[in-house]
What does this fold into?
Amino acid sequence: MHEFDLIKNYFSKLTKNNKSALNLNDDVFFDKKKELVISVDTYNEGIHFPNFNKPYLVIKKILRATISDLICKGVKPKYYFISGSGNKKTFSIRKLKDLTKSLLEEQKKYNIKLCGGDTTFSKKLSFSITVIGFSKKIIFRNKTKINDDIYVTGNLGDSFIGLNVINKKINLKRNYNNYFLDKYYKPDVQIKLVDQLLKFSNSSIDISDGLFADLEKMINNQNVKYEIHLDKVPISKHMEMLLKKRRFQKIKMISNGDDYQILFTANKNKSRIIKAASKKLNLKITKIGRILPSSHKSSIIDQKGRVLRVNNKGYVHQF
It folds into this structure.
């Protein structure tokens, strides 16, 4: 069963009298009166991260992935709770020292504080993280408007290469390995854009499951379509080199998620403000397409104007 079907058929009715739950169709809980924003994420070994051989890096990845849900809403994360299920092997003294050292670094980097959590015994390793922030406003997921421009921060696809390096599906030179592993374990969550995002975004989401999968989440329940120009989708110089040398397909590289960049839409008249924010923050923000009326078909267009077919649009949560 698809994640959306699970929510629609079983859980959404439980939030009927709870407007703050946002019909379970966003990544956060938002109580406007109390100015409270909450997000929860769970990560399982072998699914959300390959293994726990490098706890120092794994915990960075999953904490950044969780605070990313608030950041893309235009909210600064303030507090977090962390729960872990594992055993003596997964939570050895050495690994616990690595975990706490890494979490302390992340707390300083993002100015967040640990407030509690839980630990349980399990043969399978998993973490659940709850992040809390405070704001009078957020950017909702499903507020795109026809003729909105579509933007994305940073570069896409590097994390997917890093995952393939870990899984030994791709073998690269050491300097390339280190770059892509860094992008996988330490995603560039764009917290410095948080204060600016509310000034120009109509809708937003972080890219966790892949560009096209998350774009379709952002417009679900809305009567609109999208047009993406593949050549405009930003990639790093390292990725450009790989595409040339290995003949990888760009569309596949950007469709597999774990980027945690911000995908957002904005009115055309906001372009100057967005360019100014990009320059001021020294942050790459790229216009990659636009929102269309429902009379059109959603499309991905290559440099020659051809419409491309995508067999795998990203990670799918199946139950």
Remarks:
- The longest helix spans residues 93-110.
- The first strand starts at residue 29 and ends at 31.
- The chain has a mean pLDDT of 92.
